Amino acid sequence: MAGRPQSDPTQNDICAIANVGPDTFRTGPAALKIGGYGRTGESDMAADETVTKARHGGREARRRERSHKASGPGRPYIVRNIPTYDVLSEENLLKIEAAADRILAETGIEFRDDDAVLAYWKRAGAKVDGTLVKFEPGMLREILKSAPSEFTQHARNPANSARIGGRNVVFAPAYGSPFVMDLDRGRRFGTLQDFENFIKLAQSSPWFHHSGGTICEPTDVPVNKRHLDMVYAHLTLSDRCFMGSVTAEERSEDSIDMARIVFGEGFVDENCVILGNVNVNSPLVWDGTMTKSLRAYARAGQAAVIVPFILGGAMGPVTNAGAIAQIERPGAPVVFGNFLSSMSLRSGSPTFGTPEPAIGSMVIGQLARRLNLPLRCSGNFTTSKLPDAQAMTEGTMSMLAAIHCGANFILHSAGFLDGLLSMSYEKFMLDADLCGALHSYLDGVRIDDNQLAVDAFAEVGPGNHFFGCAHTMANYETAFWDSETADNEPFEKWEAAGGDDAATRANRLWKERLREYEAPPIDPGVDEALKDFVARKKAEMPDAWY
User: Fold this and answer.
1) According to DSSP H, which parts of 284-349 are helical?
2) Distance between CA 369 and CA 355 in Å, rounded?
3) CA-CA distance, 257 to 260, in Å (whole number)?
C-alpha cells in the first residue's frame, strides 16, 4: 500500500478555515463536516434544544433535518483508514505478471488507425510488424515508472479538488447510459435535460467527489456536438472535478480547450484539471479513436483512465496504453482501469454485481499497487431493470469489492441500472446513500479519549442510560451516519405514513433536490467565453446523428 499522501494545500486551507488540523479533516469520522451538513462546538443549551426538536418535531421534521445535513458539498475525497484486502500470494502474483509478459511478447497487441503510436513503439524498442506490436518482458513496467502514483485533479472550486491515488478514494456517478428511467415515466432515451439533472443531483450531494463524465447520453443533441453541451454543463452546473469527451481526438481537444478557458492555459499545462475515460472492448486490439484521444489528454498533461471491458476474465491490454501516455508526455497522470463482468452462459448477456468479478477486482488491486499506479475499479454494478433488491444486492457486492481492493477512483458509483444501459433517478439516490455509508466505513475506527468515553461511564454509573449525559450531548449529531432513504421508524408509524418502499422515498428525494438546487457561482466573463466557444464550434460543422 502506498504511504500517506503529501500534504495537500486545498485540505490545509479548508482545515485552517475550520480551525482544525489536517488529521482531523482526513480521519475524523464525522467531527468535521464541510458545507453545513454537520455541526460541532454547539453549547449544551443549543444541543438540548436540538434534542427536544428531534424528539417532538415528528417524522417529517426529522426527515427535513436529515435532508439538510446531507445536502451540499462534502469532503473533496476520502482518505481510507482501513486496509486493502489481498487475496493472492506473492508467488501467484508473479505468475500472473509472467503470463501477461508472455502474452505481450509472444502474441502482442494490435494498434489500428494510429500511425503515430506505431512510430512511438518503434522508437521505444518494441517489435512492430504492421499494426501488431510485441513487447519484451519488463519493457512496459519500466516506461510506466514515470507515471505518478498520486495526483491532484483540480476543481473549479479549489475546495473540491480531488487527490487520486495512494490512500485516497473518489466517488463519481455512472457513465455512458443511452437510456434514463424513473418511477414516473419509465425507461426512455436520455436528453440534455436528464444529463443536467444528474449533474445537479451529484453537485447537491456530499457523498460524491466528482461530477463524472457522460452520466447519460443526451440523445436529443447531435452526436458530433453533444460533447460541447456536456462539458459546458459540468463546468457551470458543478464546481467539482469532471471528465471530458473521448469519442474523437478533436472532441477530446475541445474538452481540454474549454477547461483552459476556465482554469487558464498556463495552469492547465502544469496541472491536471480534466480526466478522459479511455475504453477498449476488443481483446488485444486498440483502435485509433481511443489511442488518439488518449494521446490528446497526455499531450496536454491531463489524466487518462484506461479501461478494458472484460467479460469473464481478469486480464486486458491496460499497461501498454498507460505506457503510450508516458511516451507522449512523461509524467502525464494515468489511472489503471478495471471493468470486470461475468456473462450468463444461458443467454450470452453480460451480468453485473456477481461474486467472481468482485473477487477478481481484489487481484487487480494487488497488481495495480505493484505498478504503483492509481486504480479505477468496479462501481455500483447491476443487471436489474428496477431499483429493487436485486439492484442493491448486486451493487453492494461490486461496490464493496472496489472498496476492499483499494480502488482510488470509483466510476459508476451511482445510478447504474439495466447492465449500464439505463441511468435511474431513484437508484442514483439510493446509491448516493450507500456512498454516504461508505464514507464512515472507510474512516475506520478511531481510538482516542472521546471514543473510549471513560468519563461518560463515570458520570452515568451502573444501571443507567447514556441519553442525557455530557458525552452524548457533545457527540449525538456526528456519532453515526444517518441514512436519507432508509425508514427507521416503528412499523406502525411507517404504515400510517403510507408504507412507502425505498424506491418511492428516493423518488421524492431526487425531485426535492432538483427543486432546491442552486448553481455554484461562476465568473460571468468565463461563462460568456464558454458559451462563445460552444457556439463557434457548433457553427463550424453540420449536425451528425451517427
Assistant:
1) 288-299, 319-328
2) 22
3) 5
